[in-house]
Design goal:
Blueprint (H helix, E strand, L loop, with lengths): L15 H17 L34 H4 L3 H35 L6 H27 L8 H6 L6 H4 L1 H24 L6 H29 L4 H23 L3 H7 L3 H7 L4 H9 L2 H10 L4 H9 L19
Helix pairs in contact: 1-4, 1-8, 3-4, 3-7, 4-8, 7-8, 7-9, 9-14
Protein name: p-aminobenzoate N-oxygenase AurF
InterPro entries: AurF/CmlI, Ferritin-like_SF, RNR-like
Organism: Janibacter alkaliphilus
């Protein structure tokens, strides 16, 4: 249940009138379709058993497809799969707590009659429901997950300040956190893998609303970069791949504690993230939409391309929003 049809195409010409129209459209979509974590999910209808085979990760997942994981017993595959899904949700809610704080900092300085205020508060409301949804799953899973790395959790309280002092960097960070999870969840929902119905419902709700959130970040960056000078564009062009890779690693790679709890050997971890050809392709596929945006807004210059390649996240940009990775190879 993706809502990509409900958001404006992010390749429309950027000017203030189209930006304001997009903000209004996004705000109205938030009113017409929104979810409540404790209304739209019947939590008591779903039992979570750590040995439930529906928690086994699919073969196309970066962990599920690795020989180490496939050699585990079915019960251990389910336990590790549940732990990984719970930990990603925990990292996701920590990221969204940072996002909510940043959105409030951003909205605090907006003038009257700025449509960004209305949409920012719509998005913050939806993200609050996402954090409740993710935390409720973590609680019911019984898994002792901590989410992001020690460094990520330590600097997390500082990151929302960028929404006031350097908002363009903040919204680049928004995409760096949202795009990887969105790509992962869409690929799972598109697959024929039989997942646990509670996980599936959470993903459906999250993907539906994140389409608007990602759309807003695209529109904001498109509109803001129109007024940037050459030096500012050059700075943003090299900052973007650095932020993308850092936050992607925080979300996708299990922390030291998670690796210990999952029983993931160091050498397997090193190959899984991102030491093999298949894992490096998975990493590149996560950012096809962002690469398309960078091309469109003029911050994919020669030094930036080299840095994207150095970060291991280069590749062909997507031809349209949420193009399947198999088509974007």
């Amino acid at each position: 249940m993706t809502s990509t049809q409900q958001i404006p195409n992010y390749r429309v010409p950027a000017d203030d009138d189209s930006y304001q129209a997009s903000l209004l459209e996004l705000s109205e979509a938030s009113v017409e379709q929104h979810f409540d974590a404790f209304v739209d999910i019947d939590w008591d209808a779903y039992e979570i058993d750590p040995h439930d085979p529906r928690f086994v990760l699919p073969a196309h997942d970066i962990v599920g497809g690795h020989p180490w994981y496939q050699a585990l017993s079915p019960q251990e595959q389910a336990r590790v799969g549940l732990y990984r899904q719970a930990n990603i949700m925990k990292v996701g809610l920590q990221f969204e707590q940072i996002l909510i704080s940043g959105l409030m900092n951003y909205a605090f300085g907006l003038p009257n009659n700025d449509r960004s205020f209305r949409y920012s508060t719509h998005e913050a409301t939806e993200e609050c429901h996402h954090t409740q949804m993710f935390q409720e799953f973590v609680n019911r899973s019984g898994m002792p997950v901590a989410g992001g790395s020690v460094v990520f959790r330590a600097v997390g309280m500082l990151l929302p300040q960028f929404a006031r002092v350097l908002p363009v960097a903040f919204f680049v960070g928004v995409l760096a956190g949202e795009e990887p999870i969105d790509h992962l969840q869409k690929s799972l929902l598109r697959s024929e893998h039989a997942m646990h119905p509670l996980v599936q419902r959470i993903m459906q709700i999250h993907v539906a609303e994140e389409a608007r959130h990602i759309g807003f970040a695209h529109h904001y960056l498109r509109n803001t970069t129109q007024g940037m000078g050459r030096g500012q564009r050059a700075f943003l062009s090299v900052l973007t791949p650095l932020i993308m890779r850092w936050l992607c690693d925080e979300i996708m790679k299990p922390s030291a504690r998670a690796r210990r709890d999952m029983g993931l050997p160091d050498e397997v971890y090193a190959e899984m993230f991102w030491g093999s050809d298949s894992s490096r392709k998975f990493l590149r596929d996560l950012f096809a939409d962002v690469r398309a945006l960078c091309e469109d807004i003029g911050i994919m210059n020669r030094p930036a391309r080299r840095l994207w390649r150095r970060m291991g996240i280069d590749g062909r940009p997507s031809r349209y929003r949420s193009e399947p990775a198999s088509a974007a190879a």
